[in-house]
Amino acid sequence: MVKDVSDNNFFDEEKYEARLKEIFQRFPSVQTSTFKDAYKPGLEHMRAFAGLLGDPQDKFPTIHIAGTNGKGSTAAMIASGLSSCGCKTGLYTSPHILDFRERMRIGGAMIPKDYVYAFIMQWQETFEKLGLSFFEITTGLAFKWFADSGVDAAVIEVGLGGRLDSTNIITPRLSIVTSIGLDHCELLGNTLEKIAGEKAGIFKPGVPALVGEALPETEPVFWAKAAQTSSPLYFAERERLPEGYDFEQIAGGMDLQGWYERKNLRTSICALGLLEKTFPALEDRVKAADGLIHTARNMDFHGRWERVSRRPEAIMDIGHNAAALRNNFFELDTLSKQGKISSVIIVYGVMADKDLDAIIPLMPRQATWIFTTPETKRAMKASMIMEKVAAWRKAHGLGTERLHVKDSVHDAVLSAMKLASSLLTDDGPQPLVYIGGSTFVVSEAAACFR
To answer: How many helices (H) and strands (E) does the chain have?
Structure first.
């Protein structure tokens, strides 16, 4: 058990912040390092750590979710549906936006600071001895907290890939793969088939598996893996939704409003239907549907087409690869063509390991761009983004007068909001500020609004 932090003034805010900072600095994480350095493929150390913790992951039912895009939203939707039906539900996602504790929630409430501090104090020698990564530490922390809290269920999002991800020591009641796209190719493979194979690595013997989006390249991979594990396989796009879920009504009322969330919603509804045998409380589909509608509120979930200002209107979204940004940029273009917004101002930053060449052609042509550099060694310099985008636009006969650079996210956001404010009118369509390209950009931008 973690130490009783209620006695002897064990918890101290300053000590907590210092210890947490030390964990970030001493153990590789994607916040402070590169994916190559932070990602430790293999389950040996995670299994050893979990064993020392008493294998907490085996003490509650889990739902496991992998995918290139959509896994965080889908995890939050399913957790909200379960919570709304009265299940005490844990949710483990990554990365966080502002507070490290956002990664671990029960019913929307973050893990307490004193629990985190006590855990670190008790197990810090083990972190060193086993050579754990930051993600392995936080995964163990989440599993232990969920077990100690007596959750009825926990929804667990894969950190990266699936087959060799630290979370893959669980045997869930349902395995879910939301979508497959080309991302983290240097770690997962450079084809859709290879990446699908890594994601399908979360399939477990006899455990049902649900795929949110199947492509011609990936569907055979899922069938082959399901056959290998004797897993009943379902495709959300083809499944008939359970009665009692009015898809259009739920989609229209959801507080997760990006249009791409419709795919995640369909996957989530199918998942809740498949989970009814495990969690009979889900048979109250009215309550489950209400949970889906209020996912962001119930789970305190941020960074997905999130409105952070109304006048001028500003939206933040953590979509960062070509597949996700294609959806977001399409939505911005659609709003412009429909006359719902007068202009678009985009604050954009990107990590150096992303395929910027694939993203540039997707960028809205008429937008004003403010390129920026978040404070992480993984980030591509704003000047480099500017150079690449300007070269592409010139090669395609497009102007570069709407391209700007602000080296800090703070300055970029202030500049965008100032420009948008100057374009406000008393009536008619208004300007929209979009902030994204990276979780790191959204994280730093969020501090400007909160």
So the answer is: 18, 14
Residue 271: C-alpha distances to residues 26, 268, 298 (Å)? 38, 5, 18
pTM: 0.90
For the record, the structure tokens of 263 come out as 């795919």
Q: Which residues contact 99 (CB under 8 A, 6 or more apart)?
A: 110
Beta-strand relationship, 109-110 and 104-106: antiparallel
Domains of the chain: 13-299 (3.40.1190.10), 306-449 (3.90.190.20)
CA–CA gap between residue 354 and residue 441 (Å, rounded): 14
β-strand partners of 151: none
Q: What's the rounded Cα separation, in Å, for the pair 78 and 71?
A: 11
Amino acid at 320: H
User: Residues with Cβ < 8 Å from 108, sequence gap 6 or more?
Assistant: 83, 298, 299, 300
Under 8 Å between Cβ of 441 and 372: yes
Q: How far apart are CA 58 and CA 61, in angstroms?
A: 8
3-state secondary structure of 179: coil
pLDDT band at 187 (very low <50, low <70, confident <90, very high): low
Measured at the CA of 122, the angle between CA 59 and CA 40, to 5 degrees, comes to 70
Which tens digit of pLDDT belongs to each residue from 294-348? 999 999 998 989 999 999 999 999 988 888 899 899 999 999 999 999 999 999 9
Q: Given a cut of 90, is residue 15 above it in pLDDT? A: no
pLDDT tens digit sequence for 111-128: 999 999 999 999 999 999
